[in-house]
Specification:
The complex is a heterodimer of chains A (187) and B (344).
Chain A (H helix, E strand, L loop, with lengths): L1 H59 L4 H20 L2 H22 L3 H5 L1 H36 L3 H7 L12 H4 L8
Chain B lengths: L1 H10 L1 H4 L6 H38 L3 H10 L3 H33 L2 E2 L6 H14 L5 E5 L6 E5 L5 E6 H6 L2 H16 L2 H37 L4 H48 L2 H13 L37 H11 L1
Parallel strand pairs in B: 2-4
Antiparallel strand pairs in B: 1-2, 3-4
Classes of the chains: A mainly alpha (187), B mainly alpha (344).
């Protein structure tokens, strides 16, 4: 009788422990998803701003058509990647877009006429504000991913994670190219 | 540059000192503290009411023996009635604090809500920090004073408000402003604001009640003496004992309430500094802001005492190195800067 009670007690305790770990994993996953949707909002804003900016810049930057086309191509690639719903592909495409944008912004410095255009100045300000927000959203997302992946990989929550098929989430890495300071050629 | 610091932090989680901070634990602790505070103060209100009621009965009793008995045994119908009244009143006031506290605080601070068009930079910075914290953007308020200060309030993280002074907006660079807003966002994310708002509204009330009690006591003690001159010495002694107990209690109650408020908010400021830097990944911004705030002589006219603990630095006094000392709501700025530099 006593043994039975002890066994039941242990089972209940283990059950409670598993439930606790499970809830923590769900909360972590929700936070990752929330982080991703924050990034998504800002990325959409980025995609909307770029065509307008490039449209105006075309008239000023005669010698940089190639860069402009790269920006547009990267932007379209990012939009396609977003539609496909493949998160890792999207992260890669956005990384390329960020790099192309960085080159474009650096080149634009060499065109005083372009910067003098009020419309362009507004778009640039808006875009750099959005880039800031993307950076902070990415930071929150990566922190959430770090916490969740740690939970999925470490004992004892990894047992529960395996049982209920919690997976690792991809980090939103920035390609080395974007992080490196952009070289401006001053001829 | 944000990326570089971000990489450093994630590369050295142990050395950064940030990962050790368990924000969910902080949030749970804050919820618990809010509950304990509310219940504790309701109880304190009840005890205060009982003591006042008992004293009133002792001093107004016609029969000196009855006064002696009641005074010695500390039993009193008047005390029960007054204590009960205080508990009901305290409960009601706690509910007011928990449902209207943010509005009361914003009103006391004299803060005015500003639109995105009026303050685009401030709004952008607040939005960035909200994104970094993974929370909805708080409402944005400005206090029209040349003093440098900022505060956050609200009854839950999803419905918060951040207020900054005009002087702060005019003086700080964007990075510094981001540091300050990050600190306030840290208070919001750690769920400090509910507790701090409740403390401000409830403790403000305890102080007020004790003041009233103290004043009416003085009045009563004169009345009591003229009557007790004809009574025997025992009744007189009991009355004096009661008077002393009552005075001690009335003086201690608000001090206890204040010390509670202060001891906890110092810890909180350090944690909010760390949380803010976790959001900005740039301790230099907050360090620069704290230095400017410390160096400023602009006075905060009409800053309300009840909510001093909500501000990023104490609006009333400047504290030296010894401000580990008892009565400060905030740690010395030099100590905060030192800790921030260690966050690297």
């Amino acid at each position: 009788m006593v043994e039975l009670l002890v066994i039941i007690g242990i089972i209940v305790l283990v059950g409670l422990f598993v439930a606790m770990l499970y809830n923590r994993l769900v909360a972590g996953k929700n936070q990752v998803e929330n982080g991703w949707s924050q990034i998504d909002v800002q990325l959409k804003r980025r995609h909307d701003l770029i065509p307008n900016l490039v449209e105006v810049a075309k008239d000023y930057m005669d010698y940089e058509q190639e860069t402009l086309q790269q920006v547009i191509a990267a932007r379209n690639g990012a939009v396609d990647a977003e539609k496909s719903g493949d998160r890792e592909g999207q992260i890669k495409a956005e990384g390329m877009l960020g790099a192309a944008l960085g080159r474009f912004m650096a080149l634009a410095e060499a065109y005083p006429d372009l910067k003098a255009n009020q419309n362009v100045a507004n778009l640039m300000e808006e875009l750099s504000g959005t880039e800031n927000k993307i950076a902070f959203a990415r930071q929150f997302y990566n922190d959430s991913v770090l916490a969740q992946n740690t939970r999925v990989q470490t004992f004892p929550s990894n047992l529960v994670a395996n049982m209920f098929r919690f997976t690792l989430h991809p980090y939103f890495e920035v390609p080395e190219e974007e992080k490196a300071p952009v070289k401006v050629d001053l001829r | 540059m944000a990326d570089d610091t971000a990489r450093q932090v994630s590369a050295e989680p142990a050395a950064s000192g940030l990962k050790r901070t368990d924000f969910f634990a902080a949030m749970r602790a804050n919820r618990r503290r809010t509950t304990v505070l509310c219940l504790g103060l309701i109880l304190l209100g009840g005890v205060l009411g009982y003591v006042i009621g008992l004293a009133f009965e002792v001093f107004t009793a016609q029969d000196p023996d009855f006064a002696l008995q009641a005074g010695l045994r500390l039993q009193s119908m008047g005390g029960l009635a007054a204590g009960g009244f205080m508990i009901v009143f305290g409960t009601l006031w706690t509910l007011v604090a928990l449902f209207l506290g943010d509005k009361i605080v914003l009103g006391l601070a004299g803060a005015r809500e500003v639109t995105t068009d009026a303050e685009p930079r401030l709004h952008n910075v607040v939005e960035e920090m909200a994104i970094a914290a993974g929370l909805p953007k708080p409402r944005v308020y400005v206090i029209e004073t040349p003093a440098l200060n900022a505060f956050a309030t609200g009854l839950k993280p999803e419905k918060a408000a951040i207020g900054v002074t005009r002087g702060l907006l005019d003086t700080l660079s964007r990075d510094e402003l981001q540091g300050v807003i990050g600190h306030e966002m840290g208070h919001i994310a750690n769920d400090d604001i509910v507790y701090m708002t409740a403390v401000g509204v409830i403790v403000g009330m305890v102080v007020l009640i004790s003041d009233v009690g103290l004043r009416s006591m003085r009045f009563m003690s004169f009345g009591g003496r003229s009557r007790s001159s004809s009574s025997n010495k025992g009744g007189n002694g009991a009355a004096i004992v009661m008077l002393v107990i009552l005075l001690v209690f009335l003086i201690l109650a608000p001090i206890a309430a204040k010390m509670l408020q202060m001891a906890i908010s110092r810890e909180r400021e350090y944690l909010a500094d760390a949380t803010g830097v976790k959001f900005t990944r740039n301790p230099l911004g907050l360090i620069g802001a704290l230095k400017k705030i410390d160096g400023s002589d602009a006075r905060f006219q009409g800053a309300p005492k009840a909510i001093q603990h909500l501000f990023i630095t104490n609006p009333f006094k400047k504290f030296g190195e010894s401000a580990g000392a008892l009565f400060s709501t905030h740690p010395a700025i030099s100590q905060r800067i030192e800790r921030l530099q260690n966050l690297g």
